[in-house]
Automatic annotation (TrEMBL):
Annotated source species: Pundamilia nyererei
Molecular function via GO: double-stranded DNA binding; recombinase activator activity
Domain Leucine zipper with capping helix: 149-205
Signal peptide: none
Biological processes, Gene Ontology terms: homologous chromosome pairing at meiosis; meiotic joint molecule formation; meiotic strand invasion involved in reciprocal meiotic recombination
Coiled coil: 81-145
Pfam families per record: LZ3wCH (PF18517), WHD_TBPIP (PF07106)
Any GO CC annotation of this UniProt entry: condensed nuclear chromosome
Cell compartment(s), UniProt: Nucleus
Protein's name in the database: Homologous-pairing protein 2 homolog
Keyword Nucleus set for record: yes
Predominant location category: nucleus
Homologous-pairing protein 2 winged helix domain boundaries: 8-68
Stated family: Belongs to the HOP2 family.
Length: 212
């Protein structure tokens, strides 16, 4: 791009290639990065091209729209239009198919990225083997111990536990009945009575009989 044409040649070629309407802002946004055009230069170049008749200009309210001079393009008959429509339809289907393939490949890539690498899998297998070895050692130690409790001994312990719990509840109920009987003729409160005779209740010790 020469400094003399101030980007007019680039803009003219771009509009002829795309053959669609653009504002000066659109052209600036599309060409600025590749060609380093300034916005003021783009506006002046497009106004000059329109003034010279190389492109067309339409004004809609406060906005100017520019597009290629259609006289330079050959006329298109119905057959050509139908062929173009058919080509557009085929390309659209191809784009849709490629988009679907890209989505599928992207999903597979994400799945692969979330999977363990070979090195990570080898490391995890080694850790699991070491963990299993530890469990085996514990199991062998338990099996070789000489202080195992037989089912009969276990059953005896549970029966004695149930017996003691029933006796605990029975004595608690008897003590409560005796206390209530005394309190009928006692001038003070139950708390004062228990403190006077030195009785500590389950509640004082924060314990309750377990379920059998």
């Amino acid at each position: 791009m020469s400094k003399k044409d101030n980007g007019a040649g680039v803009i003219l070629a771009y509009l002829n290639e795309k053959n669609r309407p653009y504002s000066a802002q659109d052209v600036f946004s599309n060409l600025q990065k590749q060609h380093g055009l300034g916005k003021t230069a783009v506006v002046k170049a497009m106004e000059l091209l329109a003034l010279e008749g190389k492109i067309k200009e339409k004004i809609y309210g406060k906005q100017k729209i520019y597009f290629a001079d259609q006289a330079q393009f050959k006329d298109v008959n119905d057959a050509d239009l139908k062929a173009m429509d058919h080509q557009i339809s085929e390309l659209s289907e191809e784009v849709q198919s490629l988009t679907q393939s890209c989505r599928q490949l992207d999903a597979e890539l994400k799945e692969l990225n979330s999977s363990l690498t070979t090195e990570e899998m080898v490391s995890e297998i080694q850790e699991l083997k070491a963990e299993c070895s530890g469990y085996r050692a514990r199991l062998e130690k338990i099996k070789s111990a000489s202080n195992h409790i037989t089912p009969e001994e276990k059953d005896k312990v549970y029966k004695e536990r149930d017996l003691y719990i029933k006796e605990w509840k029975k004595r608690k109920r008897l003590a409560s009945d005796m206390t209530n009987a005394i309190l009928e003729g006692y001038p003070k409160s139950k708390k004062e009575f228990l403190e006077e005779v030195g009785v500590e209740t389950d509640e004082d010790c924060k314990v309750v009989p377990p379920n059998t």
